[in-house]
Design brief:
single chain; 501 residues; alpha/beta; Rossmann fold; 3 domains; 6-stranded mixed β-sheet; 4-stranded parallel β-sheet; 18 helices; binds guanosine-5'-triphosphate; binds magnesium ion; metal ion binding; nucleotide-binding; GTPase_HflX_N; Hflx-type G domain-containing protein
């Protein structure tokens, strides 16, 4: 009976693989049109059309390899889980579940539908097959019952072409990987010109690699009828390289503009900045919204923020401060993808202070923490910035109080809830301390006549955090001001400092 069932299943699967050719990865353009476009990219007749031809060719490649044109996918998700030591099995299994949940959250962010999912446990990746025979059979059995599935997502960051090829042959469906998925999200969420350029740039290594892999596959398969020829690939690789150069140039222009703005900000000297960093969805934008009152619409989506934005807030001593919202981190994506976004984190490396927001309610919070720290270390942050970093445990409202004690790492975390407004005053106090220390600002008491030149200068150029009338002479006030060394020197050179503490 069992044998019969198995035989029937095998027949269904064999039929499915034959009856459903893998969806072709192609766009609306005919090969002839694409070749014309390519010729233009490689040998432009005039400068005016060159940029346009580059962009159009890039779109062709994206349609071809990233299948953007197909819109919404109906997915079956496979989360591989490799364990080398079977005694670690239990804890790895819960880690695998967290990874699967994160992958499902990534898919939800794109509003794609998940028709089914599975954890594929095995001792290690198996070369060209990636998945073991048993796991492949299990997925095939599940797919046989789900005819509406349009693609399989194998949530490993980067499939090799042969792995993709084997799995597509086995499943009879296109197979996507994590890099692909994250690129799609970046595409959807990029708003500014810089973010859009960064996304386009991070696509190029992926597209180039897919081209090389296709080329290698064609070389291996010398008897295939549909041969593209060496020139086909060479032309495309050269065009991609040209495109890469063009985007780098456009990006460096945008970066120069940003550097000018940053210099202006530091020239004014009155606006210390705090970079808010952390794992994606940890609550960075929510925290900045709570601290500044700006309406930022935080979303329960991964990579909701892809543009670095700056928001003005105020410290308890009334000094203005800028909070810099940054792109979130995530595990298991290739460094190339992070690298193209590292420039958006330049603002973080140049900040006076960093707040690291951790989602303490997340089951994977420890792993997320080490992932963020590893990425920050790779950014070459100044040692002092790393040491002064404030770490907050956000979403404390979701954590039962008895669990909090074990999570707060011996008091190293400041418990907060950005959405409930818990712990924010304490946090702002710590931010103030950190800023004063990092920027060499200090409190100075100045006695001056109300409405005098000194009085007006201080109100105009620095922060006056307290005003007291002088009990000995009601015409005078004692101002408690926050001043940097430079502001102090400017003030001294214009006025006599009456009293200082
Ligand atoms: N319960 C609870 N939810 C929170 C808290 N802080 C943020 N959230 C929710 O967590 C989700 C993500 O918040 P965001 O502020 O967008 O997170 P982010 O770190 O900016 O995310 P990315 O920009 O995608 O990296 C949203 O649905 C928030 O409402 C909190 O303190 N408690
Ligand atoms: Mg955000």
């Amino acid at each position: 009976m069992r044998f019969l069932k198995l035989w029937a299943q095998t027949r269904i699967l064999a039929f499915r693989a034959k009856a459903m050719p893998i969806r072709p990865l192609c766009s609306d353009h005919t090969p002839n049109q694409i070749d014309k476009l390519l010729d233009w990219v490689l040998d432009p007749p005039n400068e005016a059309g060159e940029t346009q031809a580059h962009a159009q060719f890039h779109r062709e490649m994206v349609d071809h390899y990233l299948k953007q044109a197909t819109g919404r996918e109906h997915l079956f998700v496979v989360q591989p889980l490799f364990y080398h030591d079977p005694t670690l099995h239990a804890s790895l299994n819960s880690q695998g579940q967290c990874k699967l949940d994160e992958t499902l959250a990534l898919v939800r962010t794109l509003e794609w539908q998940v028709y089914g999912h599975t954890l594929a446990e095995q001792t290690s990746a198996l070369g060209d097959n990636l998945l073991s025979f048993d796991n492949i059979q299990r997925v095939k059995t599940a797919l046989a019952k789900l005819p509406a599935v349009s693609a399989v997502l194998v949530s490993t960051y980067n499939l090799s072409q042969s792995q993709r090829h084997v799995l597509e042959e086995e499943f009879g469906l296109p197979v996507l990987d994590r890099y692909h998925l994250i690129l799609q999200i970046f595409h959807r969420h990029a708003r500014t010109r810089e973010a859009k350029l960064q996304v386009t740039l991070s696509e190029i290594p992926y597209l180039k690699r897919r081209l090389y892999q296709d080329m290698a596959l064609e070389n291996d398969n010398k008897h295939s009828k549909q041969r593209m020829g060496k020139l086909y690939f060479e032309k495309r690789v050269t065009a991609m390289k040209k495109r890469e150069k063009q985007i780098h140039m456009a990006l460096s222009k945008v970066k120069d503009q940003r550097a000018v703005l940053r210099r202006e900000r530091t020239k004014q000297g009155r606006f210390p900045s705090v970079a808010v960093v952390g794992y994606t969805n940890s609550g960075k934008t929510s925290l900045i919204q709570a601290l500044t009152g700006d309406n930022l619409e935080p979303k329960d989506k991964l990579f909701a923020t892809l543009d670095v934005t700056v928001h003005q807030g105020q410290l308890p001593n009334l000094a203005p401060v800028l909070f810099v919202d940054t792109v979130g981190f995530i595990s298991d994506i290739p460094t190339q993808l992070i690298a193209s976004f590292a420039s958006t984190l330049e603002d973080a490396t140049l900040a006076d202070l960093i707040i690291h927001v951790r989602d303490i309610s997340h089951p994977d919070t420890v792993e997320q923490n080490s992932n963020v720290l590893k990425t920050l270390q790779s950014l070459d942050l100044p040692e002092s910035l790393f040491r002064s970093m404030i770490v907050v445990g956000n979403k404390v409202d979701k954590v039962p109080s008895d669990q909090w004690l074990t999570l707060n790492n011996g008091g190293a975390l400041i418990p907060i809830s950005a959405t409930q407004g818990l712990g924010l005053d304490f946090l702002l106090g710590r931010v103030q301390q950190g800023i004063m220390l990092a920027t060499g600002r200090r409190y100075v008491r100045v006695r001056c006549r109300q409405g005098s030149e000194e009085y007006l200068w201080l109100h105009k150029f620095v922060t006056v955090s307290e005003t007291q009338v002088d009990s000995n002479d009601f015409n005078y006030v004692i101002l408690k001001v926050v001043m940097s060394q430079r502001e102090m020197e400017q003030f001294k050179s214009r006025h006599r400092l009456a009293h200082q503490s």
